[in-house]
Amino acid sequence: MNGIPWAALGLNIALSAAVLTLLMAATFAVALAKGGVHRVVDSAWGLGFAAVAVTGWIASGGRGDDGHRLLVALLTVVWGLRLAVHIARRGRGHGEDPRYARMLDAAPGSRALYALRKVYLLQGVLILLVSLPVQTALYAGAPPLPLTVAAVVLWTVGMFFEAVGDHQLARFRADPANRGRLMDRGLWSWTRHPNYFGDFAVWWGLFLLAVSGWQAALISVPAPLVMSALLIFGSGKALLERRMAGRPGWDAYAARTSGFFPRPPRRTG
């Protein structure tokens, strides 16, 4: 397909914005029904991407390569639903997330309206931005086959690190013998953040699926850059490591284990 059908893509972005608005409004209503526990919005993060992918797949019907469109939508939905289910299970039975508690304790005026603006609507905007490669890929056509293969390999590596890392951490935490200990086994011995590295790889893989030409690449590249910045410098690695600093064994673990990109652990001592 030559170029991008800008009008159709613009309409798709508007439809995705409407769908995300409804999703975030419904999630906000669920949070209020649960007594103002806003951690439920974290599950809506993955659901939002899945919703955007399905919306775009339906709206782009009849355009370009049907196999490519299905691949893009399927990879995005699988990633988004797995993440949403994992976060929902992890938060079951827990109260408010400390991040949101601290934010809302300092809220001027209504806590609920502040959460709506600063948490729900902001996440909706971020989902719309980060999902641009998905939306573009559904309209701009398929990239060359080698690039598609590289994209799927990168997505698969990312899903492996993310899903296996989350599973290993959940099993570690479920064992009472590990209470107070740092997780430094399995993938967690190769990187301190296998789940965040997994997200990073997934979204650069999805970006490659959108690179059918220079226009598609240009409109899509801000998305993986924003996701990378969030994972490494924002609410991912940087925030978590500030909370972990000072815990017994952390310095030794950080000295032998990569901070982000996987590699074999260093020998220390």
Automatic annotation (TrEMBL):
Pfam families: DUF1295
Membrane-crossing residue ranges in chain numbering: 6-32, 44-62, 119-139, 145-164, 196-217, 223-240
Sections of the chain in a coiled coil: none
UniProt xrefs under Gene3D superfamilies: 1.20.120.1630
Keywords associated with the record: Membrane, Transmembrane, Transmembrane helix
GO CC terms: membrane
Keyword Metal-binding included in the entry's annotation: no
Tagged with keyword Lipid metabolism: no
PANTHER family linked to this entry: 3-OXO-5-ALPHA-STEROID 4-DEHYDROGENASE (PTHR32251), STEROID 5-ALPHA REDUCTASE C-TERMINAL DOMAIN-CONTAINING PROTEIN (PTHR32251:SF17)
Protein name as it appears in the record: Steroid 5-alpha reductase family enzyme
